[in-house]
Amino acid sequence: MVARPQSLEKLLNLLRTLPSVGPKMSERIAFHLLKFNREKMEEFIEIIREVYQLVKPCDLCGYWDDQSPCRICRDSSRDPSQLCVVETPQDLIAMSRIKNYNGLYYVLGGVLSPLEGIGPQDLRTRTLMEHLETGTVREVLLALNPDIEGETTSQYLMKQIQALVQKLKNEGKWENSFEIQVTRLAQGVPAGGELEYMDELTLMKAFDGRRSILSN
Length: 216
Ligand SMILES: [Zn+2]
Description:
Elements: H1 6-15, H2 23-34, H3 38-54, E1 56-57, E2 64-65, H4 71-74, E3 79-86, H5 89-96, E4 103-107, H6 125-133, E5 139-142, H7 148-170, E6 181-184, H8 200-208, E7 211-215
Parallel strand pairs: 3-4, 3-5, 5-6
Antiparallel strand pairs: 1-2, 6-7
Helix pairs in contact: 1-2, 6-7
This protein binds zinc ion.
The site of zinc ion has 8 residues, from helix 4.
């Protein structure tokens, strides 16, 4: 292989840490960047710096925005009684393409994975339960990927919600007007598929076919 400057090697190594970027793609990107003129390169660096400084996860839903609560959480036209739980911000974007869903979202920030050592403490489950405890949510739609981790996480969340309802009932805090129905995406989502890459129609069918898995 032809020897390359150390600085270029560093850039190639860095690019290879990005998702879906292998050795060939890292070279394509690096050589494309090298063709930038000074002005364009400075603009590129400045935009990355600005995004890094300004865009943070929303304190309520975990979606990325330059304000917290984010634009979605502050949108008063949305129905706060519906809460769609997703794994990543990209999944939130995918779900937001469904025009017949107008509720709020909650980004878990991952899924349970014993193999990778990801437990409940690594996900945003505690704040989710605190949010449910306020009594504003009537339906929790679990929109996690239809794989083993997604399935395990959905089961875990369902049990947590059941336990929360029981706790509130025991403490006499469960009012008659309260109701938490847990639903999940159903038909339309293929096993092993990823929400992020699904087309609108597939997601729409999955949304319409959601089924209740827990009702209090
Ligand atoms: Zn938010």
